[in-house]
């Protein structure tokens, strides 16, 4: 089984969402940035790479701390957005599974909600280790499993009941990195030590909109599955997803718990 079609669809999906990231995905992922940077033990003058950087928020936040930061992402529109937002930083189109950077050229590497979007997270970890100097720090974030997430528990109950998953392209397990023991083993194999896990109580704060429509802009994986279904099934999924999120509706929108995990380690 190969994930080539999924990889291409992910790249195109994030390319298409670059202009909508601020009003959707960023409403959750930006909450993680301070803890992510803190885990890297940064000092002014260090060199950092923001992996799967999207619009460049991690690199931009690091630069504000006097870090020499740059970013890489496989979606061209994301790189264009990042470069416009942070014109003094360097961003390039590229795949974090095979980076063009020299070995041992960074002091820190960060990846905010990016590893579960690639087809081989273990290889991405090894690449992060390769570009880090010995003693360099690597940190990345990951959503908790649906069993520990109000958002994804409700979402995937609907998807399992209504969607024919076989209609979508084969994809890696989105929650393989939600198990700390699995991640610790992968990071150790990649060349990291001093591995830590921290839980963050992330909350999706969404505006008052049709929640289904909002979530179709929030990510790429679920829209790929929904888009493969027949129109009448898509309508059922819409209605059931909105009903599942109704308990989390507030006067100003939605506040849905979706905890995250922050993993960090030191390059040997």
Q: How would you describe the overall organization of this protein?
A:
This protein has helices spanning 4-17, 26-29, 33-38, 57-63, 76-85, 121-131, 150-162, 180-190, 211-218, 221-227, 231-245, and strands at residues 47-51, 68-73, 90-93, 106-111, 132-143, 192-200, 203-207, 253-257, 260-267. It is α/β, with parallel strands linked by helices and 268 residues long. The chain has one domain (4-267): Vaccinia Virus protein VP39 (Rossmann fold), CATH 3.40.50.150. The strands form two sheets. A seven-stranded mixed beta sheet has the order 3-2-1-4-5-9-6, with helices on both faces. A two-stranded antiparallel sheet has the order 7-8. Helix 5 links the parallel strand 2 (68-73) and strand 3 (90-93). Pfam families: Methyltransf_11 (PF08241).
Key attributes of the depicted protein:
Rossmann fold; Methyltransf_11; alpha/beta; transferase; methyltransferase; S-adenosylmethionine-dependent methyltransferase activity
Strand-pairing-aware structural class: alpha/beta
Task: Identify the quaternary structure here.
Answer: single chain
The stretches of 5 or more residues where confidence is low (pLDDT under 50) are none
Strand order of the largest sheet: 3-2-1-4-5-9-6
Mean pLDDT: 97
The number of helical segments is 11
- What's the SSE pattern? HHHEHEHEEHEHHEEHHHEE
The CATH homologous superfamily is named: Vaccinia Virus protein VP39
CATH architecture: 3-Layer(aba) Sandwich
